[in-house]
Design a protein that fits this description.
This protein is of the alpha+beta class and 324 residues long. Helix content is 45%, strand content 22%. α4 (156-171) packs across α7 (201-219).
Length: 324
């Protein structure tokens, strides 16, 4: 993390520019306003890409021809705005983005980010162009650079996946590593959708699975949610629905159970006095008995034991499962 007051703003901002350049590609950065500056970056490396979250006070970020000349590696960068507003300029296009929106940009060509909000934050994926050329099936000259992928579009489901992946990386890196296996296929689908094509093959299957997961996350707290309703709402057959999960080695019921237990963990931590029966119902469990059995299976302890350990943990934060 980098922070400063007005008296050391220039020195700290130079450090921030160096951190951005080391984390992504060489960049030129200018502050949006005089005075104090703050910024932070958290990074993780996955098998085919780097995943990071970052945020700062307002600034202008430029990838100039001179910066391009200082590096040999070429990447596709994908940004998902989570706070603030911004404008991405590349290839004669301008994408105005708000929280939840996603954009693509190519580091082999100049671009500029105008991030003028008092505070902003992003999730960023850095994918080598060699991976893009091998797996996307889209000519790099036709990548949808500086094209806004809205949060409520089909491609926005992919943005939601990476927001969740960044969060899980901070809480349970082992689980994030497993989920990351779908990441490149999902990005390929989002790129194809952004250029007006329909994804096919494995990327299409990964996108459909993520659409199903997104629907399940939105409805998992409903105890009456059924397989038929999931299939009908996601426009797939029951057979296809089961196959989507069998192909990645987990059952639909196990995924739904884990979502509900995760919701219960948040409720147990947020409201220590709330009765377990109320937590069970709000998290989507049909009965308190079902809740206790599912919670022990996922977490290796009872809800009461979890609540006591969470209360004793630094900051009272949520605990990871002990059986994963």
């Amino acid at each position: 993390m980098v922070s400063s007051g007005p008296r050391v703003a220039n020195e700290s901002f130079a450090q921030w520019e160096s951190m951005l350049s080391a984390s992504y590609v060489p960049l030129a950065v200018d502050a949006d306003r005089q005075g104090g500056f703050h910024g932070w970056i958290d990074r993780a490396s996955m098998p085919d890409f780097d995943l990071s979250t970052l945020g700062s006070s307002g600034q202008f970020v430029r990838r100039t021809p001179r910066c391009i000349g200082r590096s040999d590696d070429e990447f596709l960068l994908v940004s998902i705005l989570t706070e603030g507003v911004g404008s991405l300029h590349q290839d004669g296009r301008v994408a105005e983005v708000t929280p939840g929106d996603m954009v693509f940009y190519d580091t082999s060509r100049p671009y500029q980010w105008d991030l003028t909000a008092a505070d902003w934050a992003q999730v960023v994926i850095r994918l080598p162009m060699t991976v893009v050329e091998e797996q996307f099936g889209t000519d790099r000259a036709h990548l949808p650079t500086a094209v806004r992928v809205a949060a409520d579009s089909a491609g926005g489901v992919v943005a939601g996946f990476f927001r969740d992946l960044a969060r899980i990386q901070g809480e349970a890196p082992g689980q994030a590593a497993v989920l990351a296996g779908n990441a490149v296929g999902l990005l390929s689908s989002a790129v194809r959708l952004a250029v007006g094509d329909l994804p096919t093959g494995q990327p299409a299957q990964a996108l459909t699975r993520e659409q199903v997961l997104s629907f399940m996350r939105s409805r998992c707290a409903d105890p009456a949610l059924t397989v038929d309703e999931i299939a009908r709402s996601c426009l797939v057959s029951r057979r296809t629905l089961y196959r989507l999960f069998d192909d990645v080695g987990e059952s639909l019921s196990a995924v739904l159970r884990r979502m509900r237990v995760d919701g219960a963990r948040a409720l147990l931590t947020r409201d220590p006095a709330r009765p377990a029966s109320s937590v069970a119902l709000s998290a989507g469990f049909a009965s308190e008995r079902h809740f206790f059995r599912a919670f022990r299976l996922e977490m290796g302890m009872t809800p009461g034991e979890y609540r006591m350990l969470a209360a004793a943990a630094p900051g009272g934060g949520r605990l990871r499962g002990v059986t994963a």
